[in-house]
């Protein structure tokens, strides 16, 4: 009965999805593409058995890279199907897994979770195994996989207290969905505890770590970072505000305005590409001299960089490069109550990290990094200003944090192999 009511609500809302796509397409035209896929209609033909991995957006797609490469290496007769829910996730998949290097990877959108759409999806691709990244509970999709005897695993699962409260409001539906999964691999003990509470028992959820700790910087990123730093100026202190969200840029600019550091250069990289122009407008409104990364990357305005106090990071797929080029990184989504973003990439590049108080989406990783001395938590723009100023003026403190960051990122690896061992139980590899 709960899933029937859920499905009825989805069918009522389904006509409005076109309006939503059109509305979002005004800001991000990619939302206007591939509409049939969102309703379960696909033209892509597949000739090999499919291992299907669902990565909603950019973060999940990046985190999935070591798992995808391990799957490709172990299951040589299979093709990987990557599904996404956002254009940025799909674009990230194209950048991380270009077709010339990964010809066995196909990508499409996962359809809306109506019974007929998910059945069309499963009937078309007929996956041998499905993997849902992090916490994507689509109840009709899960039920259809169960009905068709398709093993479906929730992997790299994380569940914040806020999300757990939301799922608890539809407790019977959530418990049924979790029960119908073949297995659940949680990132942390806290995630497992919340999932077990929703499930109503503790038999299915295992703790296997965070795939994002297994993400190694792509080859050449250190060199690209040094090249970028050369453009920015080796003698200039560089502060990176990474993955910033709506409303945070103004607070960060407020914080750096009170810092007395000679020739400080701030690089701001908004989390969502559709906000690049919005942040540019804010910088112009505040009369801040800035340069766009997309322009000087071609060498067209490189001469203007010495006159800029802010670089707007309006490029895609360069986050490791930005980390490599900076002295200190602030991880966005955390200065306002937005849940924070992942600090693991910054740690893997050996960068001191500052992070705000709101990190409920990555609470365990953030707490561990702070405890290890790889990160410092700041509670407001004033503390951000004070901590940034102190670190920029203390080379030894930065070096100590850098060493701790590298050690922290290496100590938590191994999730990929644990997940591959779990997958082997449901999809044995041919000897």
Structural description of this entry:
The chain is of the alpha/beta class. It folds into 2 domains: 2-209 and 414-426, Rossmann fold, CATH 3.40.50; 221-411, Glycogen Phosphorylase B (Rossmann fold, 3-Layer(aba) Sandwich). It contains 20 helices and 14 strands. The two termini are 44 Å apart.
Give a quick rundown of the structure.
By secondary structure, this protein is an alpha/beta fold.
From the structure above, extract its key features.
seven-stranded parallel β-sheet, 15% strand, Rossmann fold, 14 strands, 20 helices, 2 domains, 431 residues, 47% helix, alpha/beta, single chain, globular
CATH hierarchy class name of the largest domain: Alpha Beta
Q: Please, what is the CATH homologous superfamily of the largest domain?
A: 3-Deoxy-D-manno-octulosonic-acid transferase, N-terminal domain
Terminal Cα span: 44 Å
Quaternary status: single chain
CATH architecture of the largest domain: 3-Layer(aba) Sandwich
Stretches with pLDDT under 50, minimum 5 residues: none
Number of distinct helices: 20
**What's the CATH topology name of the largest domain?**
Rossmann fold
**What integer is the average pLDDT?**
91
Give the overall form.
globular
Helix content: 40-55%
Spatial extent as radius of gyration: 22 Å
According to DSSP, the number of beta strands is 14
Strand content: 15-25%
Strand order of the largest sheet: 3-2-1-4-5-6-7
- Provide the structure class: alpha/beta
Largest beta-sheet characterization? 7 strands, parallel
Total domain modules: 2
């Amino acid at each position: 009965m709960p899933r029937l009511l859920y499905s009825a609500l989805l069918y009522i809302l389904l006509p409005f999805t076109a309006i939503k796509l059109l509305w979002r397409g005004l800001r991000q035209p990619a939302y206007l593409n591939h509409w049939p896929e969102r309703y379960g209609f696909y033209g892509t033909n597949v000739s090999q058995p499919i291992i299907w991995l669902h990565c909603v957006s950019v973060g999940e797609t990046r985190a999935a890279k070591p798992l995808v490469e391990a799957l490709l290496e172990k299951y040589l007769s299979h093709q990987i199907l990557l599904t996404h829910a956002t254009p940025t996730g799909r674009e990230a998949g194209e950048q991380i897994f270009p077709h010339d290097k990964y010809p066995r990877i196909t990508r499409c959108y996962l359809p809306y979770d109506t019974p007929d759409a998910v059945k069309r999806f499963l009937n078309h691709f007929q996956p041998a195994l499905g993997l849902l990244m992090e916490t994507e509970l689509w109840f009709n999709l899960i039920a259809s996989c169960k009905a068709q005897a398709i093993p479906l695993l929730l992997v790299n699962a994380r569940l914040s207290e806020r999300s757990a409260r939301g799922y608890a409001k539809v407790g019977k539906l959530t418990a049924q969905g979790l029960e119908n999964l073949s297995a659940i691999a949680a990132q942390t003990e806290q995630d497992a505890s919340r999932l077990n509470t929703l499930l109503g028992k503790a038999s299915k959820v295992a703790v296997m770590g965070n795939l994002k700790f297994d993400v190694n910087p792509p080859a050449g990123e250190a060199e690209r970072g040094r090249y970028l730093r050369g453009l920015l100026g080796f003698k200039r202190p560089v502060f990176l505000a990474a993955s910033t969200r709506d409303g945070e840029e103004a607070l960060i600019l407020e914080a750096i305005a009170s810092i007395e550091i000679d020739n400080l250069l701030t690089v701001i990289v908004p989390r969502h590409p559709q906000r690049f122009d919005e942040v540019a407008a804010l910088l112009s409104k505040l009369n801040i001299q800035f340069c766009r990364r997309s322009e000087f990357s071609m060498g067209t305005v490189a001469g203007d960089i010495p006159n800029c106090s802010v670089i707007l990071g309006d490029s895609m797929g360069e986050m490791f490069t930005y980390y490599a080029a900076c002295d200190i990184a602030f991880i966005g989504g955390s200065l306002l109550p937005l849940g924070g973003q992942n600090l693991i990439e910054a740690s893997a590049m050996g960068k001191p990290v500052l992070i705000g108080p709101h990190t409920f989406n990555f609470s365990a990783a953030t707490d561990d990094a702070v405890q290890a001395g790889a990160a410092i938590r700041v509670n407001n723009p004033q503390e951000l200003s004070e901590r940034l100023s102190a670190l920029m003026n203390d080379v030894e403190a930065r070096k100590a944090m850098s060493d701790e960051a590298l050690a922290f990122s290496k100590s938590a690896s191994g999730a990929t192999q644990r997940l591959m061992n779990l997958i082997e139980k449901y999809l044995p590899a041919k000897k």
